[in-house]
Amino acid sequence: MRKTRRVTIADIAALAGVSKATASLVLNGRGKELRVAKETRERVLTLAREHHYQASIHARLLRDNRSHTLGLVVPEITNHGFAVFSHALENLCREAGLQLLISCTDENAGQERVVVDNLVARQVDGLIVASSMLSDTDYVRLSEQLPVVLFDRYMSETQLPLVMTDSVTPTAELVERLARANPEEIYFLGGQPRLSPTRDRLAGFMQGLARAGVTPRPEWIIHGNYHPSSGYEMFAALCARLGRPPQAIFTAACGLMEGVLRYMSQHHLLNSQVRVASFDDHYLYDSLSIAIDTVEQDVPRLAQECFTLLTALIGGDEPASLQSILPATLRLRSPAGA
Q: Where in the sequence is the signal peptide annotated (predicted)?
């Protein structure tokens, strides 16, 4: 098999019959400025196009002292919310001439350290991280080398740059509405209790019950993890324990609702009287026979805020605020008072 070889500036220079220095000036956009003849410039550029010449990113890195690459670390790329965020962020990077490298941690702090080290070794200019860690110590230390922006999740009292959605306020509003219609029984299905999204959404859940005058029972609070399989297992166990479906549930994330819906579909419960609500919206909820009320995050704005903050820090600018808490909206599909 013939070994392939990348086309270099030296190759283009030889084909054009000019020096490597002249070809370099033209390909770096400085040919006209330094008075390289028009015919020579056109010949070099035409040959570069014909031979699919691309400038070396390593040479650009040495010249600019930047890689023009950002790193994104998420727990799970198949999670709908993180997938939409990644897509929005990648679009922003592409428009700005930047490359986005995405790594997944599977909610494992040890794996998170490995993928972060790999991204740093590839000389990313900055990191955006939805962390599974309980302490910000590693990222505080890393921020001395390059900018780090946390998103979606935070460690208690962290002073690191942070962009996230307010989980407590809209969850309380949604759960209050749900509890007024179902005061006898409403269950919370959440992820790992140590993670800030779980803590915040549970706090909103409790506030919503209090506003509706409903006293929660300890058995109403059920924790698993944020994989769809966990939502399925928690809901299945709950139905088995009750000997029937619950009257109402609130899931702390879209992935958990996915598992619940799979169980309900398999057991022909989608047309039942179970009231369901969730944090995070999904466009497919509009196509279901069951009405799902949700807290909807503005994911494009979340991505834009992270991008703007990180690129400002990379550029040496001082943002007006290092931490942003964005509002969310309610997406109501069930009839009022139902």
A: none
Laid out side by side, the sheet with 126-129 consists of: 99-104, 69-74, 126-129, 148-151, 162-165, 323-326
SS3 151: strand
Percent of the chain with pLDDT over 70: 94
What topology does CATH give the domain 66-163+299-325?
A: Rossmann fold (3.40.50)
Query: What pLDDT does residue 1 have?
Result: 46
18-22, 123-127, 285-289: the lowest-pLDDT one: 18-22
- DSSP designation for 202: H
Q: How many CA atoms lie within 13 A of 270 on its CB side?
A: 14
CATH superfamily of 9-55: lambda repressor-like DNA-binding domains (1.10.260.40)
- Cα–Cα distance for residue pair 337/142, rounded to 1 Å: 50
Sign of the dihedral defined by the CA atoms of residues 35, 40, 42, 46, in that order: negative
Asked if the model's pLDDT at residue 247 lies above 80, the reply is yes
